[in-house]
Amino acid sequence: MALQQGKHAGRLERKVALVTGGASGIGAATARQMLAQGASVALADLQTELGNKLVAELGERARFYTHDVTREADWKRLIASVEADFGGIDVVMNGAGISVPGPIDEVSYEDWQTTMRVNSDGVFLGCKYGVEALRRQGGGSIINISSSLGIRGGAIFAAYCASKGAVRMLTKSVALRCAEEGYEIRCNSIHPGAIDTPMMDAYVGEAPNREAGLAEFGALHPMGRVGRPEEIASVAVFLASDEASYITGAEIPVDGGFCA
Ligand code: NAP
Asked: Which residue out of 98, 191, 200, 226 has the highest number of ligand 1 atoms within 8 Å of its CB and is therefore the one to mutate?
């Protein structure tokens, strides 16, 4: 049976959003803001315990699904489950990702392949099955989380930069195809600068050194600080909403000026 929609006068009222990487960081912040704007949210992630804990807190309009973005069979199962549980899908946010550092003369081929599988193949599958689901719904919005490093190079991130550049161009191809075919599906990419999420842990460590590490990353950005997950989530909410009805194929840096 389809889950009941609550009575919420918000910018995403009556919309159903599927968010990958939804258990943590940017995905979790986006799920919170989408729910606050009246959407129902399906959170998908590898992190089952974290995801279940989060939806227990978020309430009845949120559900968690264990899902690996690199597995095509998982995508087929996920889309079918979300459609059965919520009655359809209006928004797909491809947020799951990993960051494995390594300059070209040090990064292993294995790390390259793992990075491409999660960050590029995962978004490809999300767009492919997302377009199918959104067409069944009569239209919708796809939001791909790339990176400022999908626009600007970074010497120590050979695989990550390439994987996020692929997301940037895939987004435009999806947007053009959907526009030309009249699918009423918009597809855009968001390009965050360094954001204070668990993904940063590997680079900045834990308290008490974490703040100093974040400040070092922040200094690389013209605004002099790293971003907060909520600052990405608010742009995702906008792109998901009908306020963005004429925006497709766009790449939106949310990076304190890093790509300017
Ligand atoms: P995060 O807190 O680590 O969240 C990412 C989530 O995706 C994690 O729960 C992660 O699980 C999950 N995930 C990884 N591989 C997956 C897979 N194969 N299938 C399903 N889920 C998977 O990181 P975040 O900062 O929120 O990152 C969200 C997105 O923003 C990513 O695409 C990232 O590249 C992008 N981004 C982040 C930053 C930043 O500075 N934080 C900057 C630019 C772009 P595990 O923990 O098990 O890996």
From this structure: 98
